[in-house]
Amino acid sequence: MQLISCSNCVFNPLQYGSLGLTLGYCSEFKCVLRQADSTTCGRLFRKDLPLASAEAANVNHRIYFDSERIQNTRTRLAMDGLPEFVEPDDSILQADAVGEVVTEYGALGTKIESIAQLRRIEGARAELGMLSLGRSYVRRCVSRDGAWTSGLHILWWTRMRLADEPSVSVSDFRLQNNATLDKQRELAIWSLVMLRLTYISDIGVHAGRHDKAIGELASFVDDAAEESSTSLRKLMRWVRRAGIQRFDKALSKERYVELAQTLHLDR
Amino acid sequence: MRHVLYLEGLGRDTPYLSTSESLDAASHFAGQSGRVWKTGATRLSAAMIKHWSRKDIAQLLQGKGKGRATWPSAFEVAQARRYVEEWREHLADFSEMTELGDDDLRELVDSLFERY
């Protein structure tokens, strides 16, 4: 996988690292990405980085790539109209449960509805889609003067599965990397757990100025990494022993319900 | 950290050159239009280029990083370590080659690699 490519972008909810389908999907340009490791655009927002670094990387990326067209990562040539790279017809993805939802992202009236559908689908790929689109959804809401609470439900759904190790099956892999199979699987699960924690940290950053308690979550992913490095066992131990306790201190169920009711009042 | 995470993007200004002990990894990154080149640790050392093995790098990429890998974000350090593990990465370190001009540097790099 290439870090500076559509395969590592939050707008592509179908792929992350070695996880995902062989085909990607761009929720911005609404097209199938047939070679997501070889394409990018100026909107790239990296899945693998925390919010501030992903923002900084995007500013740098926009110097070289156009936000309005998909380009080749190396030649920078426009890839629109080249079906071996970018395919507007997404019907092939409709046969996949996760693919069907992401290709309808935003077409159901509200985007959060699509994300809620992903939450109800079992498996690592659905969770990857939920977290990936969740990051892009909240970032965009906040950038348009919306509130961090646009991501409140996704935050709570993420909390509800924090203690559970994601289940990754052999069909969830889109490519082989060069670690042993056990290590590849462990690192794939690790990266998905870290994506959960990155989402939580994103919300902490977005909420920081408005809600001090939630703002405490901004360093969540860094604190987890400091304790665990790339060990999945240590990471899950930190999450179960310290992370959940810390999350609940920042956002109790009662507080979540209270904030959720406020969302309904806003409507 | 900047190098392994591509923080300044493709073609970033860096004294490091990424290599892999895995032919599959090299082929993956070469893609359809690229080419695989090979070198060796002894060859690098003979040219006074520091070789950072995968294990060397992994030792630096712990917590908030150690030595030259010291970094403010432990998460980013862990991500870098993941990539090093997944792609069996080694680094050729040209940071001591500060007196070489672009042409000399190109010649040196060319002399260190051969087509696989």
Care to give the gist of this entry?
The complex is a heterodimer of chains A (267) and B (116). Chain A is mostly helical and 267 residues long. Chain A has helices spanning 51-64, 97-103, 111-120, 124-143, 152-160, 181-207, 212-215, 220-228, 232-250, 253-266, and strands at residues 15-16, 19-20, 24-26, 31-33, 39-40, 71-72, 86-87.
Structural overview:
- The complex is a heterodimer of chains A (about 270) and B (about 120).
- Chain A has about 270 residues and is mainly alpha-helical.
- Chain A has one domain (about 5-265).
- Chain A is about 50% helix and about 5% strand.
- Chain A has helices at about 50-65, 95-105, 110-120, 125-145, 150-160, 180-205, 210-215, 220-230, 230-250, 255-265, and strands at about 15, 20, 25, 30-35, 40, 70, 85.
- In chain A, the strands form 3 sheets. Chain A has a 3-stranded antiparallel β-sheet with strand order 3-4-7, with helices on one face. In chain A, strands 1-2 form a two-stranded antiparallel ribbon.
- Chain A is globular, with a radius of gyration of 18 Å.
- The model of chain A has no long low-confidence stretch (mean pLDDT about 95).
- Chain B has about 120 residues and is of the alpha+beta class.
- Chain B has one domain.
- Helix content of chain B is about 45%, strand content about 15%.
- Chain B has 6 helices and 5 strands.
- Chain B has helices spanning about 1-5, 25-30, 40-45, 55-60, 75-85, 100-110; strands spanning about 15-20, 35-40, 50, 90-95, 115.
- In chain B, the strands form 2 sheets. In chain B, strands 1-4-3 form a 3-stranded antiparallel β-sheet.
- Chain B is globular.
- Classes of the chains: A mainly alpha (about 270), B alpha+beta (about 120).
- The interface of A and B includes residues 18, 48, 183 and 226 of A.
